[in-house]
Amino acid sequence: MNRALPLAMLVGLTLQGCIFSPGQHMDTGNLVREGSPESSRIELVPITPKLVAIEAAADHSNVIAPELTSYQPAEYRIGPGDLVYITVWDHPELTAPSGPQQQIEANGRLVRPDGTLFYPYVGTIEAAGKTIEDLRSIIASRLAKVVAEPQVDVSILRFVSQKVILSGAFGRTGQLPITNTPLSLLDAVGQGAVLAGSADISGLVLKRAGREYIIDLDTLNRKNSNLHNLYMKDGDQLHLPYNDQKKVYLLGEVVSTRALVFKGSNMNLTDALGSVGGLRQETSSGKEVYVIRGVENLADEPVKVFQIDLKSPSAFALAQHFKLQPQDVVYVGPADVTRWNRFISQVFPTANLLSTGVGIQDDLDNN
């Protein structure tokens, strides 16, 4: 037994070293111990009101490129593929040459690929590039040679020549026509029917004239949002990415460890912890709440680890203003008593095994 006791103590100390090693729980000293290889690759940042204010000031997700907000759509101009309906009052033979019993589209005039259309007693007209009023005036002036004081009206039955392309996490993808009513960005997104559970609304991509603009739809309800002032232009492309590659991970002493889908840019630390049931009251350490944020080039810049002490109720208000980013890892460390209990649970089986071994050795010696 005298030889077994030092061995049991050695095993216990070894286990204790494992329990309190950096691989088992996060500790500020272990994270940035001077001289350690990890110290140059990890930057520990306390979450303070000043940090939250700095990050809020650096948040430019609500800022939209001025060339987008300055664009104002001009009056619609007819183009190839558009179907035009021409009404000449008191002259049904001109308005509906196919007969009034036909569908209205059967009496429409299609703008040909070369931009022209034909109309009786008027002939071929260069319609492409004309406004509705331009076309009405041309037809009225030419009809005046055969019809006394013609009353002409022009409308477009089908808009084809100007369009926006939708792709990604929309319920309706493909071409979306631009009509004589200006099409705003929000109208286009609404008509596209966003797949709410699958879309990354913070990463909408607008492609225009060879450039790409990232637009955060999550800023719509923020103060001074300019999203209402964005209008679509012929040839624009809208791509809404899926959010399956954007997650926030909750690990450690939380009620439910899991990955949360990052659906927008407004997810904060309080929201994330609340979504998994919060901290485990019996095992967690409120002062060891970390947000681990990776970097693109680990060789050149350190990983940022943000820390907050949630033992104070006022800290939850601070956590509510700390915004998370995609791929953040939120880790909650165990309390000291939890580490001790885990240490004991590992030491006792080892001690029992040693005791049994010593007892067998004594029996052999006595025999």
Ends: how far apart? 17 Å
Number of domains: 3
Order of helices and strands: HHEHHEHEEEHEEEHEEEEEHEEHEH
CATH level 1 name of the largest domain: Alpha Beta
User: Helix content range of the residues, please?
Assistant: 25-40%
- How are the strands of the largest sheet arranged? 1-15-14-16-12-13
Per CATH, the architecture of the largest domain is: Roll
CATH superfamily of the largest domain: Outer membrane lipoprotein wza domain like
The share of residues in extended strands comes to 15-25%
Structure annotation, total helices: 10
| Overall radius of gyration | 35 Å
User: What would you call the structural class?
Assistant: alpha+beta
Characterize the largest beta sheet: strand count, sense, and whether it forms a barrel: 6 strands, mixed
Would you give the CATH topology of the largest domain?
Outer membrane lipoprotein wza fold like
**Overall average residue pLDDT:** 81
Stretches where pLDDT is under 50 for at least 5 consecutive residues are 1-26, 28-32
Fold and architecture overview:
By secondary structure, the protein is of the alpha+beta class. It has 10 helices and 16 strands. Strand 4 and strand 5 form a beta hairpin.
SSE map:
Elements: H1 4-19, H2 28-31, E1 42-46, H3 49-57, H4 66-69, E2 83-88, H5 92-95, E3 109-110, E4 116-119, E5 123-126, H6 132-143, E6 152-158, E7 163-168, E8 174-177, H7 185-192, E9 204-208, E10 211-215, E11 237-240, E12 247-252, E13 258-261, H8 269-275, E14 284-293, E15 303-308, H9 313-320, E16 329-334, H10 336-366
Parallel strand pairs: 1-15, 7-11, 12-16
Antiparallel strand pairs: 2-3, 2-6, 4-5, 7-8, 9-10, 9-11, 12-13, 14-15, 14-16
Helix pairs in contact: 1-10
